[in-house]
C-alpha cells in the first residue's frame, strides 16, 4: 500500500475508532456518576491488585492532591479499599473493593452486550468475518509504540 493510501486509511480509521469508543463509554448507565479519570483508576486497579496513591498519580499524570480527591470520591462510593502496607505502615495500598470489581464487570458486560447486538444487527456474516480478521491487525496497532 502506498504512503498516500496509508494516510487516507489512517484518516478514515481514526475518527471511526474514536466515535466507537465514545459511544461505548456513553452506553453504560453503571458508569454515569464517574469521571473518565475515575474510570481509568478503577481499570488500573483491576489490572494491578494494589497500588499506592502516588503510583496511581504518576500513571494517570495527575498531581498527588488531585489523585487524593479522586480516591476520596471512589472511597465514598465504596468502589475502593485502603489498607496499610504490611512493610511500611505509613503507606496505604489502594485496591478495588468487591463493589468496584462488580461495577467494572457490569460496565464491561453492558458494553459487550451492546456491541454484540450491534454486530449481529448491522453486519452480514461476511462483514462479521472481516471484523474477526481485523482483530489481529488492530491489536498490532494498539501495541505499536
UniProtKB/TrEMBL annotation:
<protein>
    <submittedName>
        <fullName>MarR family transcriptional regulator</fullName>
    </submittedName>
</protein>
<dbReference type="InterPro" id="IPR000835">
    <property type="entry name" value="HTH_MarR-typ"/>
</dbReference>
<feature type="domain" description="HTH marR-type">
    <location>
        <begin position="10"/>
        <end position="140"/>
    </location>
</feature>
<dbReference type="InterPro" id="IPR036388">
    <property type="entry name" value="WH-like_DNA-bd_sf"/>
</dbReference>
<dbReference type="InterPro" id="IPR052526">
    <property type="entry name" value="HTH-type_Bedaq_tolerance"/>
</dbReference>
<dbReference type="Pfam" id="PF12802">
    <property type="entry name" value="MarR_2"/>
</dbReference>
<dbReference type="InterPro" id="IPR036390">
    <property type="entry name" value="WH_DNA-bd_sf"/>
</dbReference>
Amino acid at each position: 500500500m502506498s504512503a498516500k493510501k496509508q494516510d487516507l486509511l489512517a484518516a478514515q480509521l481514526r475518527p471511526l475508532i474514536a466515535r466507537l469508543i465514545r459511544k461505548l463509554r456513553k452506553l453504560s448507565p453503571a458508569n454515569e456518576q464517574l469521571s473518565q479519570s475515575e474510570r481509568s483508576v478503577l481499570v488500573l486497579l483491576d489490572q494491578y491488585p494494589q497500588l499506592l496513591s502516588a503510583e496511581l498519580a504518576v500513571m494517570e499524570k495527575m498531581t498527588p492532591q488531585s489523585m487524593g480527591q479522586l480516591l476520596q470520591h471512589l472511597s465514598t462510593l465504596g468502589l475502593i479499599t485502603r489498607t496499610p502496607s504490611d512493610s511500611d505502615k505509613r503507606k496505604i495500598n489502594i485496591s478495588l473493593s468487591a463493589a468496584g470489581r462488580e461495577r467494572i464487570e457490569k460496565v464491561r458486560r453492558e458494553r459487550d452486550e451492546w456491541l454484540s447486538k450491534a454486530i449481529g444487527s448491522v453486519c452480514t456474516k461476511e462483514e462479521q468475518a472481516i471484523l474477526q480478521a481485523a482483530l489481529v491487525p488492530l491489536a498490532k496497532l494498539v501495541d505499536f509504540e
